[in-house]
Write a structure and sequence with these properties.
- This protein has 554 residues and is α/β, with parallel strands linked by helices.
- The chain contains 24 helices and 14 strands.
- The strands form 3 sheets. A 7-stranded mixed sheet has the order 8-7-6-9-10-11-14, sandwiched between helices.
- Helix 20 crosses helix 23 and helix 21 packs antiparallel against helix 23.
- The longest helix has 21 residues.
- 50% of the residues are buried.
Length: 554
């Protein structure tokens, strides 16, 4: 198969020597430089004399990681390692992925974002502010790596469940792209994290003398849209085929940007489509436990923003697979927002994305009353409001349903609508529980329960890898749908028996490869690839994958 820039081999780096080489995290190998490399690259005397292979190095850095007393200190240590030796960072992550995933991403990345300006060490990614309007392409040209296949961009308005963090939100694109590398083997030199700094309405940040973002309220007018537009088309022109992943934009912008760009560029929104897919996969796993059909469920969702609507659209696609139409599927949903049940009597005041789910019911202002009247089989939380699934609400649900399915998906852990321990205790161990950030296993009445983590990392790395390898000209909802089905199929029965509806995090690479292959097949089925179809999709995907290993520089 002939390769275009989307599937070409990784770019070669210009030769560097001496201290310049040691200061380049992409090329630095530390004490793993061989005697020959040290001689020819001007490194003699700049390193301890003893050669240390990567296996020894990873033991050393893991020991130092283990000394750190708090998750934030562990996060800072790992980012520091990434900044000085990228290959060793990813090798370490690969060896301890389940332990370190909550550090490099949720929940600890949330605290890392809150503290971003105060723990800032070294720049990573591209920061584009309102002051750079008209010069975005010139800023992108400053990035040293010229073959970008995927960029994750945020404007920092809705970071996890923490709200508006402005420029501090840069930790999210960095973290997401770390996971693309760790979970799907995308070459880190093909990735670019971006933060669009358009101000912040966070009064604490604006009053912080150490805040690194622009000192002004968040821009809402035409200048904001023009900056986003300039960024999208600058990326599209400079790196044709590059995926643009919109991340943690506010509801008012997330839906309209997805609608505006999805058919014109290779763009998607992980908060909408990725969250929808990973939740659908978990719910399909839960239904393997209960033996029921998706289309027979009554679904109450607290939160009607990006995540909630994205989840609903994914579930509807799953229900259509069972033979019911869209209107029948929508009738299975009851959305509750900050003003109560989403109903037709509020239609004129509803945001556009909520209107299709407005029910012709009498107003209800209290979640407990909604649960009491609906008797939901599934209770989903994407509100960013901790503790909203109270004992009263969960007990009411459990009285009417033998196996209540409760997904408290708000991130980070501190924002979860209820804890795993609460869900099991309040349902006498009958709940099927999943959360957005991890909870420890729960021992209840002598039985161990291991809850699932509905983390988007199960979905987006594989979708991104499949999109790149398949040479897709756009990202469709159906690509996320096949990803959800592939993920659900990867949950072994013994994991379901423990109460979890997702595979072990240690299996994430295998899961991502499976998803990538299904996405590539979907790309060719849809006829949206710019590349000839490969004879062996599995081999083509496997051959693309970058591995964290040192390469000879001489």
């Amino acid at each position: 198969m002939s390769l275009d820039p989307a599937t070409a081999p990784p770019q070669e780096f210009e030769q560097r020597t001496g201290v310049d080489l040691l200061n380049d995290p992409r090329l630095n190998k530390g004490a793993a430089f061989t005697p020959e490399e040290r001689e020819q690259l001007g490194l003699r005397g700049l390193l301890p004399p003893r050669y240390a292979p990567i296996e020894e190095q990873v033991a050393r850095v893991y020991e130092n990681f283990s000394y750190k007393q708090s998750d934030l200190m562990k996060y800072i240590y790992l980012i520091g390692l990434l900044d000085r030796n990228e290959t060793l960072f990813y090798y370490l992550l690969d060896q301890h992925l389940e332990e370190m995933m909550p550090i490099v991403y949720t929940p600890t990345v949330g605290l890392g974002c809150q503290k971003y300006s105060r723990i800032f060490r070294r720049p990573r990614g591209i920061c584009i502010s309102l002051d750079d309007k008209g010069q975005v392409d010139a800023l992108l040209a400053n990035w040293p790596y010229k073959d970008i296949r995927i960029t994750v961009v945020t404007d920092g308005e809705r970071i996890l469940g923490l709200g508006d963090l402005g420029l501090n939100g840069m930790g999210i694109p960095v973290g997401k792209l770390n996971l693309y590398v760790a979970a799907a083997g995308i070459d880190p030199s093909h990735t670019l994290p971006v933060c669009l700094d358009v101000g912040t309405n966070n009064a604490e940040l604006l009053g912080d003398p150490l805040y690194l973002g622009i000192d002004r309220k968040r821009e809402r007018g035409p200048a904001y849209d023009e900056l986003v537009d300039e960024f999208v088309w600058a990326v599209h022109k400079r790196w044709p085929g590059c995926i643009i992943q919109f991340e943690d934009f506010g509801n008012r912008n997330a839906f309209r940007f997805l609608a505006k760009y999805r058919e014109k560029t290779v763009a998607f929104n992980d908060d909408i489509q990725g969250t929808g897919a990973v939740t659908l996969a978990g719910l399909l796993g839960a239904l393997r436990i209960t033996g029921q059909k998706l289309s027979d469920q009554r679904i109450v969702t607290l939160g009607a923003g990006e995540a909630g609507i994205g989840i609903a659209e994914s579930i509807i696609a799953g229900m259509k697979d069972e033979g019911i139409d869209r209107e029948q599927a929508r009738a299975c949903f009851w959305f509750v927002d900050s003003k109560g049940l989403v109903t037709q009597d509020r239609y004129d005041q509803l945001a556009e994305h909520k209107k299709p789910f407005a029910r012709d019911d009498a107003p209800i202002y209290d979640l407990a009353e909604v649960v009491k009247q609906v008797h939901p089989t599934m209770l989903l939380g994407v509100s960013g409001q901790p503790g909203k699934f109270t004992q009263q609400i969960v007990t009411i649900m459990a009285q009417a349903v033998e196996r209540p399915i409760i997904f408290a998906l708000s991130n980070p852990t501190s924002k979860a609508e209820c804890t795993a321990e609460q869900a099991y205790a309040w349902t006498e161990g009958r709940a099927i529980f999943a959360s957005g950030s991890p909870f420890d296993p729960v021992l209840y009445k002598g039985k161990n329960y291991r809850s699932g983590q509905g983390n988007n990392v199960y979905i987006f790395p594989g979708v991104g890898l499949g999109t790149i390898v398949g040479g897709a000209t756009m990202v469709t909802d159906s690509m996320f749908h096949v990803a959800a089905n592939a993920l659900a199929a990867e949950v072994p029965q013994e994991v379901l028996d423990e109460g979890s509806v997702y595979p072990a995090m240690s299996d994430i690479k295998k899961v991502s490869m499976k998803i990538a292959c299904e996405v590539v097949r979907e790309v060719y089925r849809l006829g949206i690839s710019r590349l000839p179809e490969p004879d062996d999709i599995e081999k083509t995907v496997a051959d693309y994958v970058w591995k964290a290993e040192y390469k000879s520089l001489v």
